[in-house]
Structure formats: C-alpha cells, structure tokens
User: Fold this.
Amino acid sequence: MTSNTSNIVFDDIFTINAIDKEGKKFDRVSRLYAHSKNYDMDLTLDYNVELFPLQNGQSFALALASSLSRAPQGAAGAAEDEDKDRDVWRPDAKGRRGLDDDYEYVMYGKVYRFDGGSAEIVTAYASFGGLLMSLTGSFRHMTSIVLGDPVFILLRR
Assistant:
C-alpha cells in the first residue's frame, strides 16, 4: 500500500459500480460508487464531470497524500528543501515535480470524520471544498489517514 518513504497515505485501483444512483443533483458534479481491487475497500466520491469524465465499469487509480511533495515529510534534508517544495505546483510549470504530475485530477481537502462500523471495518470521510469522499474498509489499510489532517486526493485513469 504505502511506505515510510512517501507522502502517500493510501493508494489502490477502483472500479466504478455506479454513478449518481440517487439521481443527479448538480450539473457539473457526479457521485461515483466504486470498489477496490487490492484492499476490498468501498469508495463514494463526488467529482467534477467536466474536468474528469468517468463511466460506469471504468477503473481508475486513487491515491491519498499528505503532501504533493515527492520527498516524505520529516525526511533528512527535507528542512533545507522546504522553501523549494512550497511551490511544487505552479501554473508556469517552473516548480519542482510533485505527485500531481503523475495524476489527471487532484483535489485538496480535510479528513473530517472517522466512523468505526465493526471491530475491523472503519469509514474515513473527507471534504474537498464541498465535494465529499467516504472510504470504507479494513482499518489496517487506513492507519496513515488521520482525523483533522489535510489531504490531497489524486486520480488517474
């Protein structure tokens, strides 16, 4: 799943089971329901359909990261690179290469809730400027996701 040498706190490949199964509520936003291939996780995610069009049955890679920097936070030498990493993303492409360069769709948000369903199964909730995500599955795969922490969601087909 993840290692200590990365800012990625969760990653997996998901296959979409349904889109807008309760009906479409907004013109540019849809809600997808997906299941992961590797960790048996369930995902519900709101996303912008104009920026990242998806279809039922399609697979995509999802990653949750604490930072877009490629170097892990708190790593040796990270303090001296802090000023350089502050501008990882720049519209003129002169910033350092970040994790976002490897993905097609990126959002920034916050983990706002954790629910423990059963002893083994938990659900993490995050909001990305009002676009919501819920990720349900074994707590073992979500140990690096921390309540109240900012998080980046990165998607690619």
